Amino acid sequence: MRYYLLALAISAGVSFVLSVVVWRVGLKYRLYPKIRERDVHQTPTPRLGGIAMWAGIVVALLAAWFVFPLISGVDYFRLVFADAGPPLAIIGAATIIVVIGVVDDLYDLDWMTKLAGQIVAAGVLAWQGVQLVSLPIGGSLAIGSPYMSLVLTVLTIVLVMNAVNFIDGLDGLVAGVAIIANGVFFVYSFVISITIGQTEYFNLAALLSAVLIGACLGFLPLNWHPAKLFMGDAGALLTGLIMATSAISVTGQIDPAGISRTALLPAFIPIILPFAILVVPLLDFGLAVLRRLSAGKSPFTADRKHLHHRLLDMGHSHFQAVLIFYAWTIVAAVGGLMFLFVKPTYLVAVFLGVGLVACTAATLSPLSRRKKVEIAVQTTRTDALATTESDRFDPLDAAADALDPHDTDAAAQADVPELTNPKEHP
Question: What is the pTM for the complete model shown?
């Protein structure tokens, strides 16, 4: 465990130091885009935090690969790096994504170019063996041909990358959600590796989760509201890439029968948990795609109708909206993990039920406050509303009350200015 924590600390340290450097360089050379209509922030802010996160992840992985054996005298991660292909593919894919993201953050690439880059990065991972080869349902269900496995892996990685990128709209949102989700996933992969014996897949998943948590922790101080630095597309896509890779390293590579001793639903845990930790990004992504396709637009067309925008429009503050996203992620992720430890199952159902009710109440709270205000206004006595001089002595209202179409004298008595030149007032 301590070497996972050491990898996390290295990633966090490198990410924090470079985040400060990137922030200062970005301000000095004005490496930030103009504020867009859909943006929440009002001050031009550098969006190159993904570079610092990438450096933290890469340095931590290289340290675990080459430095940790020298420090401890024991190569604890030997199974992870026994085959150099997957680790190198992860570093290569992360580099491709960050390059594409940085160029987009600076010059605003079209969506087809970004999608092509994402497919290439995912293809590198799948080509080097980071693939979904089976679905762990009822004793492992083979996906099919190697070609089908490659295609499904690429689609999954691209989906997760874009889902995470879609929710990147509030200060501290993606980094915080990633810390929570990967913290839960780290516990899962670490416990499983101890329960059924360590293999390269479980160690790789836990190591990736640890270094990503570290990168987000190091970046978050500069990204907390009001943010000094954004992770940009480079950081959001990188976060999605690492999350998808760690999930694939477990899902589809384990034998469900091996965890039957500890899990109440062993056949479904490896499927439930990845979706649980990504429930918020995937929900926002799905709604955005449906919304844009129904409007006849590209699914990658930007708009201001994401879930975080809707929370702000409902009346939540920036801080409240971020905390609501955190709460939903905690309930879904921890609830999914509880199936591994808690028995009987109804206790998990109770936790999920209470959590969902609490999150729903917090999410909809501005609507109840607004309804109370409306009721208070509607029930206010009429005579209490007309207390200002303008309400009591509005000349137009007085003229309307005095004017009677059947009473010519009333028109003359009304305090209405006469039209001295009818030709000028047709």
Answer: 0.82
